[in-house]
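In the design runs reported in the main text, the only information available to the sequence generator was the tokenized backbone. The following block is the verbatim input for one such run; it is reproduced so that readers can re-run the procedure and compare outputs position by position.
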């Protein structure tokens, strides 16, 4: 529910973009603000380092969650969260390169293109395969087939590839 704004009526009936706060708290990332309030923060140059760190920390956290899900034998979800980890690392690279907010997309190919990096074909192929984890892990019809294929060895191989791509991304940060 949106907070009430004087003269705007019932807060339930208002769209979220009418609830933009008069200030941006220091502890909230610009990307999170854009998501929560439907706006893009104008002065990205001030916040881009925090935004890069926000995406990198999210990627690291999600990789830990993916590993924990794998250990608890929740293989489809381990790969789904692994995809999110790669997505967040690519968004960090996009922000570092453009000094603008990362696009609102889950497409790893789109994000990779916006990093400004020369992406080797083997990395591009892995990114394309990871999209299966997102699509088939999320939508009900595809989910059934994906769950049947998602054995321990399938998930283990997928997580190893995810970790390889994340290492490649981290090396690109070190080279900047």
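Verbatim output:
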């Amino acid at each position: 529910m949106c907070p009430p704004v004087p003269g705007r009526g019932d807060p339930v009936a208002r769209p979220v973009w009418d609830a933009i706060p008069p200030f941006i708290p220091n502890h909230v990332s610009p990307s999170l603000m854009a998501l929560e309030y439907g706006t893009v923060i104008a002065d990205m140059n001030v916040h881009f380092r925090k935004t890069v760190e926000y995406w990198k920390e999210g990627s690291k956290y999600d990789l830990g969650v993916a590993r924990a899900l794998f250990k608890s034998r929740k293989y489809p979800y381990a790969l789904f969260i692994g995809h999110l980890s790669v997505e967040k690392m690519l968004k960090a690279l996009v922000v570092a390169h453009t000094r603008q907010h990362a696009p609102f997309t889950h497409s790893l190919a789109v994000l990779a293109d916006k990093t400004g990096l020369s992406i080797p074909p083997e990395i591009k192929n892995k990114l394309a395969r990871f999209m299966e984890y997102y699509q088939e892990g999320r939508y009900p019809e595809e989910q059934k087939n994906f769950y049947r294929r998602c054995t321990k060895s399938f998930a283990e191989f997928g997580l190893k590839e995810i970790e390889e791509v994340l290492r490649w991304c981290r090396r690109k940060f070190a080279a900047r």
